[in-house]
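Worked example 3 (structure in, sequence out).
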């Protein structure tokens, strides 16, 4: 199970003997489980405020990863979850955001299922939604966007193989973990055919006390001052503070494109 004051309440726990009604608000369920936990496996981004809600008699184990530094391998975390579930009634896996989005939930769920450990997932608010709310952005503003793509920014040979050309001017791109090299991000997106004036907003520590928001575009992104992690980029027409003006121009161009005569070459 996981929760975080910045991005929401999320994650999973070994099931208890008594089940809450289906209409229970996830935040209430998460808070209740925290107070009843025997063991808590926490990630690095979980705030002190949330940790303060944990049962004082519970064992709290840090299994987080920050900036590429791992305390434990994923396989070791999986083993610890299975082992703790065999010994305790309530075991919590505490994460920030929603564990089902870039939270390695699949590997941990598979380990629990293979060990025949019953569990439940308490959903949370993923970073893209928290960052959008912090910036006052509608990710699916119908005047400027027709689709959302949620991705991480991969570097090296893996990044070179990504199809950035699939991102269009009507796509809202939520880019997790963009890293400190904004120039590389800008280059990759522009190389994929996105225009220099495409808006971009960088949100650091979204909804937290140290939140920072930077409004820019692809042309200026490379020269922007780097914001501290955790950060997320929202790229697309919706990431402008003047969405209405941009959307009018876009749809006007789309209408012109539809009325222009088209020619075909037959060989």
């Amino acid at each position: 199970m996981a929760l975080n004051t910045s991005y929401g309440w999320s994650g999973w726990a070994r099931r208890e003997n008594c089940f809450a009604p289906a209409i229970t608000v996830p935040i209430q369920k998460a808070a209740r489980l925290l107070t009843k936990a025997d063991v808590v496996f926490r990630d690095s981004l979980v705030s002190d405020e949330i940790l303060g809600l944990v049962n004082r008699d519970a064992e709290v184990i840090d299994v987080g990863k920050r900036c590429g530094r791992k305390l434990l391998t994923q396989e070791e975390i999986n083993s610890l979850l299975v082992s703790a579930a065999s010994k305790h009634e309530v075991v919590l896996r505490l994460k920030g955001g929603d564990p089902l989005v870039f939270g390695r939930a699949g590997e941990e769920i598979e380990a629990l299922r293979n060990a025949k450990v019953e569990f439940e997932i308490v959903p949370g608010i993923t970073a893209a939604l928290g960052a959008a709310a912090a910036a006052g952005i509608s990710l699916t503003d119908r005047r400027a966007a027709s689709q959302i793509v949620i991705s991480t920014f991969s570097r090296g040979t893996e990044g070179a193989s990504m199809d950035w050309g699939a991102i269009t001017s009507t796509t809202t791109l939520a880019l997790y973990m963009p890293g400190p090299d904004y120039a590389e991000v800008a280059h990759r997106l522009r190389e994929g055919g996105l225009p220099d004036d495409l808006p971009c907003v960088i949100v650091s520590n979204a909804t937290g006390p140290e939140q920072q928001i930077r409004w820019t575009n692809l042309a200026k992104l490379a020269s922007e001052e780097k914001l501290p992690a955790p950060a997320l980029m929202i790229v697309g027409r919706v990431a402008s503070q003047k969405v209405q003006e941009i959307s009018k121009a876009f749809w006007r161009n789309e209408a012109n494109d539809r009325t222009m005569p088209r020619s075909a070459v037959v060989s």
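Notes: The first strand starts at residue 2 and ends at 4. DSSP finds nine helices and 13 strands in the chain.
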